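Hello, quick one for you while I still have it in my head. I'm working through a protein record and want to make sense of it properly. Would you mind checking whether the tokens look sensible for this chain? I owe you a coffee for this, so here goes:
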Amino acid sequence: MYDIGTRKRALSLLEQGRSLNSVSRETGISRSAIRSWQGRLEPLPRMAPRPPGPPADQAAYAYLLGLYLGDGCISAHPRRAGHYLRIACADTWPGLVAACEAAVRAVSPAGSANRVQAHGYVSVVGYYAHWPCLFPQHGPGKKHERPIVLAGWQQEIVDAHPWEFVRGLVHSDGCRITNWTTRVVAGQRKRYEYPRYFFTNVSDDIRRLYTDTLDKLGVAWTHCTRHGNAYNISVARRNDVARMDAHVGPKY
């Protein structure tokens, strides 16, 4: 005779995928006895996988968070428990694709990422059961149609690695361009060129995350309203552009 605890232990080994022979050898219980218990005991409760803590590589996460808020999405696997993280990167910027892939590999516990080619862009894809835990901004609908607020632990990472976060946002929804203007000097009109960073996002919350981080870094910015919409954030002062160049740089 075997007590209920012994029976449940034997059945739990079977649920792990072990064979009758293997469980019989380990427990010393005959195969026929174990077979007779199957289906007669209440199923054992399954322990839910433990949600992950903050990622170990926080600098890579801050960069990946910026990319996700701009051009990322999370979708459930159609047949098993797990999720795909996808970051869309234009073919024009192979360096950005490589940096994105490296960040996904650094943040994912599986350490893996794949590239899926589409027309004009590459999706960098990582599979992991707990992507929604690492990116709690995931939800139904478009990002600009729902609140986007960082969790406390995410804000701590952004505060520790603000330039990486800004770099991810600019690499997703920003650009470095050369503006020009003309001035009359000594009676002659001359053309002047100067570099400028733009960040464009329809979500008020995501733009606010960008500008709040720039404020903490002491980088001056202005709204650039087009067609009545203040979706563009400009950094144009020479010293601030130089700092952006040092920490962000143009896409490549």
Remarks:
- The chain has a mean pLDDT of 88.
